[in-house]
Amino acid sequence: MSIVVMFFAILAGLAGWWLARQRLTAKPWLEQGVIEGVPDFQASRDPAKRVGLGFLLAVVGSLFALLTGAYFMRRELGDWQPLPVPPILWFNTAMLVASSLALEWTQRAVHRGSMPQVRGGLAAAGLFAVTFLAGQVLAWGELSSAGYIVAGNPANSFFYLVTGLHGLHILGGLVAVGWAGRKAWGRGGVDSVRLNVELCATYWLFMLFVWMVLLSLLAGWASDFVAFCQQLLS
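Below the sequence we write its predicted structure tokens.
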């Protein structure tokens, strides 16, 4: 159990460092001033949205951390039979990385003030994300056709559960990207979509981090890491 705690501590440290880089722990509302005694209501709404996203990421991170803990505990029982990792998961991972990079590029395009590039970046991010989700469905189909059904083994159930939950969160992120695209194709300028793009990029990076942790579990890397730590402590 101490090894599992150490594993979580490392993940928490990485997540905390990443959140600090994203400035989600900052208090920008304390940095906002007023103009002739009138509060800047737009500035006050922006920090609230950032804090709201930070709270959402904390909840999502806790959910997947609990699932990771359940994985380590459940796999110790004798009926756990690991299932093979479908090769398409590597392609899906590349698509999620490409989608996250597209949003990062879109964020830079916002800073450059180029609306055509913003629109193109949002479209690319959405396309890569849809491809990722389609690939996940194909992975489920491959496993199901090979006899790895949900009720066949606890390891099978875990695979479908965590990939399904992650896919639902990506689907929710697509709604946010679509909303940002609606603004980008509207009559507003770059400033009207700036916050939406920044929040989407932050959310996407976090979901990419979560997916890499899940992939490390499914591919057995996390188990190898735990075994290595056990050898060091023994």
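The chain has seven helices and two strands.
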